[in-house]
Amino acid sequence: MSEATAPYQSIWRDLQCVSFSQGFLDAGGIRTRYLHAGKTGAPPLLMLHGVGGHAEAYIRNLGAHGEHFDVWAIDMIGHGWTDKGTHDLEVKHYVAHILKVMDTLGFEKVSISGESLGGWVASRLAADHPDRVERLVLNTAGGSQADPKVMERLKTLSMRAATEPTWDFIKARVEWLMADKAKAYDDLVACRQAIYAQPGMAEAMKFNMILQEMDVRKRNLMYPEDYARIKAPTLVLWTSDDPTADVSEGRRIASMIPGALFTVMDGCGHWPQFEDPEVFNRIHIGFLKGESVPEAVPVAA
Length: 301
Known about the structure:
Blueprint: E1 20-27, E2 30-37, E3 44-48, H1 62-66, E4 70-74, H2 91-105, E5 110-115, H3 117-128, E6 133-139, H4 148-163, H5 167-175, H6 186-196, H7 201-208, H8 214-220, H9 224-227, E7 234-239, H10 247-256, E8 261-265, H11 272-275, H12 277-288, E9 297-298
Parallel strand pairs: 3-4, 3-5, 5-6, 6-7, 7-8
Antiparallel strand pairs: 1-2, 2-4, 8-9
């Protein structure tokens, strides 16, 4: 029976035979939840989810990456089971949190892979703190544009799911991430429902969604001069069916980053690392190890 037609899929299946841990660390006063795989002393890798997301975005990638890296997938401030925000969360606040996480873990320099908002945060951190980033992956990353239709759709789905965390509303939010809606597994929906049903989550989501307000978004955007300051070797990974922007936007981002490589994963939406982990892991690990990746090509400015 194929994955697409199986009656039930569990995110636990992706953790079977994987040595991993889940826990909390104090990142400068912010109680921060993490999923960890790999060995201490291996090259450190941080994985950052998108807005409204959580560390389970990388549940299908921990095992493969843990064979090569010291992997930390975290819930960013205001998200998942990490402390909720107490004010509007702009990109600088997420960057400050990530730097605190790095300092707490004793990492002077890390590779960072960020999806959506996580990519936005990662790109800003790499531009403003180039000495802290080894290699950078921007996966269907936000922060390069302000499309009011996309912003309103994302805000509406997220606020509805957090205000009234019914199964149908949560599932609609998860399905938005996927090109293949069948990949919105019940287990994943249940995981997000538990997070969104936390006391205070509706108020916290308002703070998380502030970047969907046009004036706030514009002052937080990454502009050409910002991308130009990124010094870390960078891979921009896009998809054929991303709901936030088409392939041309990913290519444009890559063209603004000196020496950046660009690749497209077919048949995936906003979560390629979850929808097609085999292809994602191969491309992603190869780039992070500094190996030649045939699918990743330079983009001329």
